[in-house]
From TrEMBL:
Keywords: Methyltransferase, Transferase. CDD domains: AdoMet_MTases (cd02440). GO terms for biological process: methylation. Gene3D superfamilies: Vaccinia Virus protein VP39 (3.40.50.150). It comes from the Bacteria. GO terms for molecular function: methyltransferase activity. Pfam families: Methyltransf_25. Residues 21-118 form the Methyltransferase domain. InterPro entries: Methyltransf_25 (IPR041698), SAM-dependent_MTases_sf (IPR029063). This is Methyltransferase type 11.
Amino acid sequence: MIHNELDVLAELVPIGNGLKVIELGCGSARLLTELLERCPACEALALEVDAVQHAKNLARLPEMLAPRLRFVRDSATAIPAADGGFELALMLKSLHHIPQGAMQTALAETWRVLRPGGWLYVSEPVYEGALNDIVKLYNDEGPVRAAAQAALDRALSTGQWQQTAERRFDMPAHFPNWESFEQRMLYPSFADHQITDDLRQRVKAAFDPHCGANGAHFTRPIHVRLLQKQAV
């Protein structure tokens, strides 16, 4: 069980050496923010396509991090950065959100903006477990998660990347009550899951047996692959 994925990243990549980092599909950028707090010599660019989340990120950017962290509303398929400007790229549960036809473009763009020898850290949820069984009632990510892994395999087959590490572990996921699960998982700002009253009740019926006095506790299996850019 891993409680902080930054510990996994720090084990695989020398983040304390002052890296320039780009996160693609940053969401709330929680791990990236903690990385910058832990490593004062690092700088980062964070991309997010969701306008609502991007506005939240700008509003709560810590003043002490503002000189080293820049948020941009843009896509991994057309990264607004020069060639070879970063030592580390992060895709944290974001590759499977990219349209399947554009995944290879996003990985090619990531290769472009990394320096030779730079790392791409890809963390993807595994399609299994009790939480997954609930989520797939309204958002079955089996095909897109498989497509994300296949896209990485195709990228490796080009010779432009080498996979240098792989990790599998569980992470805790806690929801204080049904209302917190509903807001966070059924109605995210970046997706419309077409939730009807009937579907909502079916999801709640699947969630409720897991929820006790201290909320609902799940484990989420994670698969990490670390790729390194090869000079070709």
